[in-house]
Fold this sequence. Notes:
The chain is of the alpha/beta class. The protein has 14 helices and nine strands. The two termini are 27 Å apart. The site of flavin mononucleotide (FMN) has 22 residues, from loops.
Amino acid sequence: MAGVTNYPFRRICAAFGAGLPISEMITARALVEGREKTFKLARFGPDEAIHSLQLYGTRAEDISEAIRILKDEAKIDHFDLNFGCPVRKVTRKGGGAALPARPELLRRIVREAVLSADEIPLTIKFRLGIDEDCLYFLEAGRIAEEEGCAAVTLHARTAAQLYDGRADWERIAELKAALHIPVIGNGDIWTAEDALEMLHQCRCDGVAIGRGCLGRPWLFREIAAALEGKEIPPPPDFGEMAAIMMEHARSLVEWFGEHPGMLNFRKHAGWYTRAFPRSAALRRELMLITCLEDLERVLSRVDPSTPYPESAHLVRRGKRSGRQKVVLPEGHPARSSGPGS
Length: 341
Ligand SMILES: Cc1cc2nc3c(=O)[nH]c(=O)nc-3n(C[C@H](O)[C@H](O)[C@H](O)COP(=O)(O)O)c2cc1C
């Protein structure tokens, strides 16, 4: 997740049992142009067992070149290509979730990326389609399979839906039934029970977690226990959560430096504490923290034995609700499909 799954957060998720923490989305073109900031985003930590990196691009040449550069510069164990981004400035240029509506372009990008990745497994992630009038997930899945992808991830919403409404898990089941390569289901996993239910209902091979782990990285511990048939461990109380927050912030400061690290942590601080009753004042203070001492001082004012609220998973986080009219470039095949035009 862009701006979220940097090394410090991946490290925490992995410690809680996340199987494959994936990097933030890295723009292929920026790597090809040698932008230092992008190379920094693509770094992995010293204790990361698996180096899994997500690339974004609209041109086969850029993506293949970025893969070659990364392979030369670092140890990469898995590449993922993101064709699910619904952001206006991305779809306007035909990228992200707009791209799979051009199957021949998708095929060329995936074919060349798989060739460049060589023995490194490459997966792709996509949505259901542009909108209900332009659904492409089955075709995108078939292309991925035919061109040698190791697996696909389906975020079961359209680009028009953004993050709104329920993800349509039936379509994950449909994709799973249509393909032989593994299908990872994505959308609305908020609890361990959700993960089990998606695996059962869709017969998919894995689940990808998005917003559910924002401020709740222990969700992975809960899912891991559920998958092993063990009792689901309780969430932390405020005191334990404060220790996790301190660890997270400390790691961000070490990785990025004090100022950028604390700035990045502010949004996490908001997600961690959101569900607590009457926590608005606490969050206002957390939005002003500039150093680890500030954070410790603010957190120490709350009774550490305060239990984690039961309904925390229902508090939506990460993205605003609402749908959009997907903006597409001139001549895009989905421009005639109604609401997406
Ligand atoms: C803050 C934020 C950043 C995201 N960035 C990315 C990204 O860089 N790459 C990607 O494939 N998905 C990204 N997503 C989408 C999630 O990976 C996921 O597909 C989506 O949130 C649906 O899953 P959920 O219902 O479990 O949240 C992002 C989501 C959020 C909330």
